[in-house]
From TrEMBL:
Naturally occurring in which organism (per UniProt): Rhodococcus daqingensis
Domain Polyketide synthase-like methyltransferase: 162-421
Protein name: Class I SAM-dependent methyltransferase
One Pfam match: CMAS
GO molecular function: methyltransferase activity
Protein keywords: Lipid metabolism, Methyltransferase, S-adenosyl-L-methionine, Transferase
First-tier enzyme category under EC: transferase
């Protein structure tokens, strides 16, 4: 990469901006910068150019000197990304070196240099209001039914047509299951994931399945159509419930699938032969994971199986010593919490369930997210028309950053299979994994 950079002492906005951010990053950045004055600085052959449209972008960063400030500037349109978004957030570690850098670790001379640059560029001023897409004050007790309903609505009730643009016809908002990274469509991989869940649950005709956090009904439809079960799907998203109900009717399965606008804590018509929870328990939270496990265990019949498919933390995302406002918490998953696998497994065991199998699908989610990013970028104009440029930018940044987080092992995802033992501890499980998968 050729490093055509401005001459030392250059006073253009772009040159000063690049110099300040490279001071924060403690070294050269593989990006090109364009200032509001039309000036450009950085490698001529960079794969991405960061465009600062106005000084307000700097004020956002100054008031929140981390990934939240950068995210606000991008979502608001004060800063734009021209080129490959993956090149910006992937390499090498641009976001890690700039957006997640604790400025207190800089030496005094560097702090003075950055502060002086921002002052000369006119970044000092009142705090700009956050973009409207950022969730405001959250009312009520965290993970109460009312607050959960409100924050889930913030994420999911943004328009079913928008989600369809990047999820595709499958309308499955969780990681697909790929047999090969280079072959197969997203729809085929999502179908394979749904069938994997059904086989792990050993679904067969006549059984009764509860699908917790049923989304747009894809799991419920697949289980009823291909495995002959009766399904109750529950969601607290009104838009998901409406579309899922319509999709069930269109599939001719209304006699076997019921979609409810209902919190899982209010389900009282057990027992069920099996329970699936796909991409839902991330909303439950550390304080409620025990209650979640207890409730689902109570709804299972003896020898009934539970499959919990959820993103998990690998290491703390925010430390207690240096807390930073998280972009994901403000814009994407308010109150969402990624728990380590050990916490989830312990909660199930304490609820009287026996954990029989866990499977990590980290690479599968990275592949899925890459496909979603491709779909969103391909349908960008329609996405902007449906939800506006700010929300479209929010999702693009979130999906791309998430793909890299899974690829680099910062977060992971597990399918945990548990069973409620019958009399004398009988699990009803075949002796080999292949047999209980139905292979």
């Amino acid at each position: 990469m050729s490093a055509t950079r401005p001459e030392p002492g250059s006073t253009t906005a772009a040159a000063r901006l690049l110099s300040a951010f490279e001071t924060i990053a403690d070294g050269p950045l593989p990006v090109r910068v364009r200032g509001w004055d039309g000036s450009v600085a950085g490698p001529a052959d960079a794969e991405v150019t960061v465009v600062f449209r106005n000084r307000r972008a700097l004020r956002r960063i100054l008031w929140s000197p981390n990934e939240l400030g950068l995210g606000r500037a991008y979502v608001a349109g004060d800063m734009e990304i021209d080129g490959d978004i993956f090149a910006l957030i992937d390499g090498p570690d641009v976001i890690e070196r700039v957006g997640r850098r604790d400025l207190r670790t800089l030496d005094r001379a560097s702090i003075r240099r950055v502060a002086s640059t921002f002052l000369r560029l006119g970044a000092v001023g009142l705090r700009p209001p956050p973009p409207a897409e950022e969730i405001g004050r959250r009312r009520g007790t965290k993970h109460s039914k009312a607050r959960d309903a409100a924050v889930v609505s913030h994420h999911y009730d943004v328009g079913n047509d928008f989600y369809r643009l990047f999820l595709g016809p499958s309308m499955v908002y969780s990681c697909a299951y790929w047999t090969d990274a280079d072959t197969g469509t997203l729809e085929q991989a999502q179908d394979a994931k749904l069938d994997l869940v059904c086989r792990k649950l050993h679904l067969s005709p006549g059984m009764r399945l509860l699908d917790v956090g049923c989304g747009w009904g894809s799991m419920a439809i697949h289980a009823a159509r291909h495995h002959g079960v009766s399904v109750v799907g529950v969601t607290i998203s009104r838009e998901q419930c409406e579309l899922a109900t319509a999709r069930v009717a269109e599939a001719g399965l209304s006699d076997r699938v019921q979609i409810r606008l209902q919190d899982y804590r209010d389900v009282d018509d057990g027992p069920y032969d099996a329970i699936s929870s796909i991409g839902m328990s991330e909303h439950v939270g550390e304080s409620r994971i025990g209650e979640y496990a207890d409730r689902l265990a109570d709804l299972l019949r003896p020898q009934g199986r539970l499959l919990n498919h959820a993103i998990a933390s690998v290491a703390p995302l925010v430390t207690e010593r240096h807390p930073k406002p998280a972009f994901v918490d403000r814009y994407i998953f308010p109150d969402g919490e990624l728990l380590p696998l050990s916490h989830v497994a312990a909660a199930f065991e304490q609820a009287g369930l026996e954990v029989r199998d866990t499977e990590a699908l980290r690479e599968h989610y990275a592949l899925t997210l890459r496909r979603w990013v491709h779909n969103l970028r391909t349908n960008w104009d329609e996405a902007v028309r449906l939800v506006g440029a700010a929300r479209a930018r929010t999702w693009l940044l979130y999906l791309a950053a998430s793909a890299l987080s899974f690829e680099r092992g910062r977060i992971t995802i597990h399918q945990v299979l548990a069973v409620r033992a019958g009399s004398a501890g009988a699990s009803g499980m075949p002796l080999t994994r292949g047999k209980w998968l139905g292979d």
